[in-house]
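Morning!

This is the sequence you dropped in the shared folder:
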Amino acid sequence: MFQAVSANKTKTAFIVLLIALFFAAIIFVISFYMFELGIISAVVAIAISFIGSFVVYWNSDKIVLKIHNARPATPEQDQKLTNILEGLCIAAGVPKPRLYVMEDPALNAFATGRSPKKGVICVTTGLLDNLDYYQLEGVVAHELAHIKNYDILLQTVAGIMIGSAIIAARTASRVMMRGAGGRSGGRNGGAGVLVIMAIGVIFMVLAPLAGQFLKMLLSRNREFLADAKGAEFTRNPEALASALELLGGSNIPLSKSSNATESMYIVTPCAEMRADMNAKKKSSSLFSTHPPIDKRVDALRNLR
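The structure's back. Tokens below.
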């Protein structure tokens, strides 16, 4: 377990550094070729990219909650949920994370935050309405396990930064292509135009592929680990197994989900993908962020 936590911290640092350098490359190209800032471009690019990366890292939980338009859970409105969390925190020996609820009929949940002390668990109203007490406890325990294992740091930072990098690359490619189209002469002449157009195409093509590659680095084994650890907290693996079967069989997509944040949820938020995997009984693809639900259920039911 300590090795898994250490690996998550290392992967997070790697992803932050890699995407910061990616941002720096985008800013440098725009500054150097379009605004002709020369060597100053490198300083500007590095400063902006690392400041931006730090801001994203420090505010990642706020960004995710804002995207999902989640509200804080209260004892008055969500007594069952708050009672479950308090009991699990005692069993897990972790600080009590903040609880949030998003108004969505989909059956899903996620955890976010920078550390166990800054942890957040968010569940949908669909989950609250359709799961019994013990199934809901199993789901919350799974998310609490992600918090204890520092998975949330890796998932949240990677999701937000990968999405930001893809958006930045697409925006930069359009800006560079427009700039190239409007420049037929100038200091760099035709060669400069060709360089800008080539770099724009590279950003447009490679950014989504790079994002998928980084998602692949987020090992799917973390879901099996969180399932097992969550079952350890509740001492009731069948509750989580039956909850996963309900979540996997639901055909309601999560309205606020995106490719960038897909890895954060307990099951993939794409209902069509879940249905396809269940119908064909196929293994998850190379770039899938979650293992097949039937394998997770089997693993839980085979726990000793």
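Headline: Strands lie at 71-72, 98-102, 109-112, 120-124.

More detail when I'm at my desk.
O.
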